[in-house]
Design brief:
single chain, 139 residues, alpha/beta, Rossmann fold, four-stranded parallel beta sheet, 4 strands, EC 3.6.4.13
Length: 139
């Protein structure tokens, strides 16, 4: 007998595809939260430079820019997410787009500034709503 092998896989059914629920979601491994879009862009540029020629894909989301372009970037996949708190909350509302199921590390850059400028309530919502560990300074 020959050494032929067979692979059984279900045939794709295009009629069962629902773009609202079957869309690829961003599931980052690392989340970096920073207070300003300028800082978010600087961190993203460094992350992109460090991830060059690796399988890691950084993304940035921040307020003051069209969310459509940022949503499209997230839909392509994301391993390192750099975000401002307000826009991150907006994207967390869309459960089909952003998931923290694979999240391993969270970095809060300029934490003192985030807490002193009134972001404390939003930061608490971020950590409680995402299932992440709530840091001691927000309890």
């Amino acid at each position: 007998m020959g050494k032929a092998r067979q692979l059984a896989a279900p045939r794709p059914n295009p009629s069962r595809y629902n773009p609202q629920t079957d869309r690829v979601r961003a599931e980052p491994l690392v989340l970096v939260v920073c207070p300003t879009r300028e800082l978010a862009c600087q961190i993203f540029d460094e992350a992109r430079r460090l991830c060059y020629r690796t399988m890691l894909r950084p993304c940035v989301i921040y307020g003051g820019a069209p969310s459509r372009n940022q949503r499209e970037q997230l839909e392509m996949g994301c391993d390192i997410l750099v975000a401002t708190p307000g826009r991150l909350m907006d994207f967390m509302q869309n459960l089909n787009l952003l998931s923290f199921r694979r999240l391993k590390f969270t970095v809060i850059d300029e934490a003192d500034e985030l807490l002193s400028t009134g972001w404390e309530e939003i930061m608490e919502k971020l950590f409680s709503g995402s299932g992440m560990f709530l840091p001691f300074f927000l309890r």
